[in-house]
Each structure stands twice: as C-alpha cells, then as structure tokens.
Amino acid sequence: MIVRSAMDLVVGVNSPVVVVAQDTDILILLCYHRLIDCTNLYLQADFDGLYDISTIDIGDHKKFLFKYGWSGNDTVSCIHGHTKCALYKCKFPASVITTFTSNTSPVSEI
C-alpha cells in the first residue's frame, strides 16, 4: 500500500514525493515499480540519507525481483552461509527465472 500510494502521488503531482521508511522491502519495491520517467521519487531512510529512486540501477527487471526474493529479505529468511551479494552474482538459468516470474506457471513447477 505504501509503494502504490507513492506511485499514485508521483503521477498526480509535479513536486517531489518522499517515502520515509527504514525497510529494505520498501526500497526494493519502489525501485521495481518506478516509472521510466519517475524523477521525483525519494526514500528517506532515517539517518542513512535520501535515496533518489531514479538513480538506482536495478539491471534486468525480472531478474532483480527474483534474486531479491530468492536471497531472502532479511537475515532470518536468507540462505544459510551465503550473503546477498554472493547470491546476486549467481547465474540462474533463464528457464528458472521465467518459471518463477510467470503468472501462468503451475505451482508444481515452482
């Protein structure tokens, strides 16, 4: 709901929209759902600074969200013994990413 509201505001106003959150998931979803011409959306993460969402390069759109979900969104759900950085460098076959990101993939394949 936070990300959706921010996206709705960005489209509706010509002034900067700042989302205040201390949550990596919010940052990831803002990057993933941002519009191509979205140049006035920011994330304020406490004292870490102000992040301009338009300047964050997420690379391949489908792989980005897949790898974030696969690597776990916090220490509790991450794959034991592997850092997020190591998992982001993993080469996943295109068929695996397609299966996990397709709306039509049967549950048995996932």
Write the SSE topology.
Elements: H1 2-12, E1 17-20, H2 24-33, E2 41-44, E3 50-52, H3 61-71, H4 84-88, H5 94-101
Parallel strand pairs: 1-2
Antiparallel strand pairs: 2-3
Count the DSSP helices.
5
Question: What class, by secondary structure content?
Answer: mainly alpha
| Low-confidence region ranges | none
The helix content, as a percent range, equals 40-55%
Strand content: 5-15%
The largest pleated sheet is described as:
3 strands, mixed
Count of β-strands: 3
- SSE pattern, N- to C-terminal: HEHEEHHH
Q: What does the model show?
A:
This protein has 110 residues and is mainly alpha-helical. Helix content is 41%, strand content 10%. The chain is built from 5 helices and 3 strands; from the N terminus they run αβαββααα. The chain has helices at residues 2-12, 24-33, 61-71, 84-88, 94-101; strands spanning 17-20, 41-44, 50-52. The protein has a 3-stranded mixed beta sheet, with helices on one face. Strand 1, helix 2 and strand 2 form a beta-alpha-beta unit. Helix 1 (2-12) packs across helix 2. The longest helix is centred in the N-terminal third of the chain and has 11 residues, at 2-12. The two termini are 26 Å apart. The mean pLDDT is 77.
Features:
10% strand, mainly alpha, single chain, three-stranded mixed sheet, 110 residues, 5 helices
Q: Concise description?
A:
The protein has 110 residues and is mainly alpha-helical. The chain is 41% helix and 10% strand.
